[in-house]
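user: At home tonight, take the chain set out below, taking as long as you need, and be ready to discuss the fold:
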Amino acid sequence: MRAHSSLTPVLSLLAFLWAGLLITNQAYSADLRTQETPLQKIPKAIANTLEKNQIPKEAISISVMEIEPSHAGKIASKTALDWRSQQAMNPASTMKLVTTLAGLDILGPQYRWRTNIYTDGFIRQGTLKGNLYLQGTGDPKLIPEELAKMMKALQNLGIQKIDGDLFFDRSAYATNVMEHNTIDGESLRAYNVPPDPLLYAFRTLSFQLGKSRTADFIDISYTPPLSQLKVINQLQLVDQSCDSWKGNMRFNLEPDGDGTPTNQLITAQFSGSFPKSCKDVSYNVVAIDANTFLTQGFAAAWELAGGSWAKAPTGKSGNVPLLSRLILPFEGIALGDDVQDINKYSNNVMAKQLMLTLALQKMGKPATTENGELVIQNWLKNLGFQFPELVIENGSGLSRKEAISAEHLNQLLVTARNLSVADTFYNSLPIAGTDGTMRNRLMTHLRKFLHLKKKPEARIKTGSLADVRAISGYVVSKSGKMYAVTSFINHPNAWRGLEVHDQLLAWLLDDGPEPKHAR
């Protein structure tokens, strides 16, 4: 008993020391979890720019990965910077990268949309006696140049005159995806055009205004050509700066006919004042219903090609009748070329239609956004990804609901380098200081590298909404390293974030990540 009693103080001391060691280890482990590592620390210059623009660090997420070849010949990556990269954020238009990469990989760059033309009549002595039915599949770039090719193809069938009407079959899309819903109430703005299986010229009238070179008045032209549009120019030239040329100009677009199907004249009236200093400016508006816009566009294209009508078409919605016959399967521009417009110029409706095309091709009609999201989610799963935070509403980023983390979007950028469509995807991104939405970005910084034989470059998709600024893409640094970079700012002061993101891109162009930060 005494021997046992003599050990008690020793055991108590050991127990105390062990408990103290456990507490110390737990505290140390907790400290490691909360302490910033070099990879998780925002570079000082970028942090200073955030502070200067009153954007808190908690409002930005950044993922930077260095891309390099692996021993197996595949592209690998290592983290160069990670700041809140796993947070679900609104990506604005950088969501288009998910949609376009999925579209290229699933459909292939050579995929072409088809607009089928049917008739319920017959061709006799150069006249088509019967109606034409246009059945769309969502070609996002059915523009005047393409419509001119379609007219030529119709004439090659022996048609010079059409004695019938036009009908438009939009059964490829579910009705609800064609509704004109906006997140900002600006229904007349071109970026808010809703999807349409028979979308013509983005359903946007583009007026070009400028002082005449030969006289003291304003020239007004427009595209696409419409068969019954009249422009009334009541603008007065004034000596003002061109910076606010819209301020004193008034525009009105309204029907000017008697309402009968054969008299659908539309008047575009410009009044007010216009600065003499303006050379060539564009005024874009979405103000004509889809059927009228397509009817008058088709009629004008047919007449410009030398064709004629027995009577002016009225244009109506209607599915292709069972007894009609296909006379022209018209193929549009290849997807690889369309993706250039989607990413370089951030075309919302083209991105939406690409997502709906994925639904149409993989799950049948009518295409829905829900099915489009299912196709993309399944594609990600086949690539081995799980993005639980991913929310896709329409695939364009013009949404308050869409979400993804910077880390996961960056992982897609790295994965893209291993896909067969790698170059097509890479080349579709805007080049800083050169084109697209990055045309005027980083120009001063890029001048530093003019003396280099191999110039560094930044190919970056941008995104912006109220309270959101985003960038995502690739940077090739001055030493030739390639980085995938994604950063989101979600904050009321996000509009000030352009300087922050340019600072981040400049840091990468200059080989900002030190070697120890990339280990």
Notes: Residues 38-110+336-518 form a domain with the Beta-lactamase fold (CATH 3.40.710.10). The first strand starts at residue 60 and ends at 69. The CA atoms of residues 138 and 357 lie 7 Å apart.
